[in-house]
Amino acid sequence: MKFGKNICILNVGGTKYAFTREVIRDFPLRRVSRLHSCSSEKEVLEVCDDYDRERNEFFFDRHSEAFVFIMLYVRSGKLRFVPRMCELSFYNEMLYWGLESSHLEFCCQRRLDDRMSDTYTCFSDDELMGADEEEARRAEAEDEEEETRPWLARMRRTFEEPASSVAAQVLASVSVIFVIISMVILCASTLPDWDTAKNNTVEEHRIIEAVCIGWFTAECIVRFIVSRDKCEFVRRPLNIIDLLAITPYYVSVAMTALTGENPQLQRAGVTLRVLRMMRIFWLIKLARHFLGLQTLGLTLRRCYREMVMLLVFVCVAMAIFSALAQLLEHGLDLDTSNEDYASIPAACWWVIISMTTVGYGDMYPITMPGRVLGGVCVVSGIVLLALPITFIYHSFVQCYHELKFRSARCVRSLSAEFLN
């Protein structure tokens, strides 16, 4: 530091501290010690918020009470949280002054870890940077479009955001009604008396089905036309599901036109029946309109690592217990062997229903060692399944509050629009 007086004054949130240059040079806090290497006022302002040359006073617009506890750490070497202060806020103050979570006492480290696990879903730095850049580009594009083509932006929000306006809510309600009607027809078509009723009112059934498909097709086409990025629209999972739900109808119509109205030929077509059952994907369209399904999808997307870990746990346990069960029930005594456990793949079914505590009762061990193994398998399944579920639960709660907050914000803007 080649300017100012020998005494340096640190003003942190209105509380002043006086130190000599030598103390500043060797100060344990990195941000404070950086002041000694500053050679100009411009460099000083990169470290602090303001600087008074006459009094050689450095201003930091930070939490004064938190800095008191940080100064206690400088003097005594023990860092604890400020009472009645949010752990995350104090942690932000620590990061500002150049401290890490490892400087905290062990009890406070556990409090911080618990609070962060309840509040945040862990992402890598690359994912966070990519999400921030994508959000910034999207906001910039929306602002530009609002100025050039406001009608297009309004139409896009109407189709993509059900809570953005009254028209969007009406459109979403109509879509839900069509989904329910389609599902009722699909379920009723599997009833034994459906063929007789269909022969009597075949035209009505075809008309209802055609109207539902026409609505879904028109909605999908309009959303594709008004979308900003066509490639991104095609890559979205919900849009792919819409395409999978609509395509089977047109394929079945084309196959009917090519093969004629021969019912025997149509019943023999396995492909046609599979395509018809793919309409069950219409239920996933409800994720656009219901918070619970959106929370489930967002949780699965964010917790794929925990889901893979859960699958690995189950597979490893299934391999171990199925091999032991086959050995104990079938491999040791061939005269009194249990034929249900004739192979390891057959025993895998028993292991999976035992670990999940379902227990259909279709196969069970009959030897004493096999029953002991069954008890160990059940207890192990409860423990192994419970371990990753904790992380998934915290992520589900976080996703639910995040989407609920976003939905409440849209409802407030919708109420203001309605009142205006």
Overview in brief:
The chain has 19 helices and four strands. The protein has 420 residues and is mostly helical.
How is this fold's topology laid out?
Layout: E1 7-12, E2 15-20, H1 21-25, H2 30-33, H3 41-47, E3 50-52, E4 57-60, H4 64-76, H5 87-97, H6 106-119, H7 125-148, H8 150-160, H9 166-188, H10 194-200, H11 202-226, H12 230-235, H13 237-259, H14 263-268, H15 270-277, H16 291-302, H17 304-331, H18 344-355, H19 368-419
Helix pairs in contact: 7-8, 8-9, 8-11, 9-11, 11-13, 16-19, 17-18, 17-19
The biggest beta sheet is recorded as: 4 strands, mixed
* Rounded mean pLDDT score: 78
Given as residue ranges, the uncertain stretches (5+ residues, pLDDT < 50) are: 121-128
Q: How many beta-strand segments?
A: 4
- What are the secondary-structure elements, in order, as H or E? EEHHHEEHHHHHHHHHHHHHHHH
The SS-based structural class is mainly alpha
Label the overall shape.
flat
Give the percentage of residues in beta strands.
under 5%
Radius of gyration: 32 Å
- Walk across the major sheet and give the strand order: 2-1-4-3
Helix content: 55-70%
C-alpha end-to-end distance: 59 Å
The number of helices is: 19
